[in-house]
Amino acid sequence: MPQLNPAPWFFIMLISWFTFSLILQPKLLSFTTTNPPHNPTPFTTKISPWNWPWI
C-alpha cells in the first residue's frame, strides 16, 4: 500500500514546511501591522449609595 510508505510524503512535507517557514511567513507577516502597546487610562468609578425605597 503506497500510503504507508513515508519516504516521498515526508520529503514533500518537509519541503513545504520549510518553504512556508522561511519564504512565505516573513512575507505574510510584513503585511500585518501590530498595535503598539499602551497603558490604559485608569478610570475611577463613582460609587453612590443606593437609595432603597422600602427603608
Automatic annotation (TrEMBL):
A GO MF term: proton transmembrane transporter activity
Signal peptide: none
Domain of life, source organism: Eukaryota
Pfam family, one: ATP-synt_8
Record keywords, A-Z: ATP synthesis, CF(0), Hydrogen ion transport, Ion transport, Membrane, Mitochondrion, Transmembrane, Transmembrane helix, Transport
Membrane topology term: Single-pass membrane protein
Protein name stated in the entry: ATP synthase complex subunit 8
Species annotation: Onychorhynchus coronatus
Organism classification: Eukaryota, Metazoa, Chordata, Craniata, Vertebrata
Gene (UniProt): ATP8
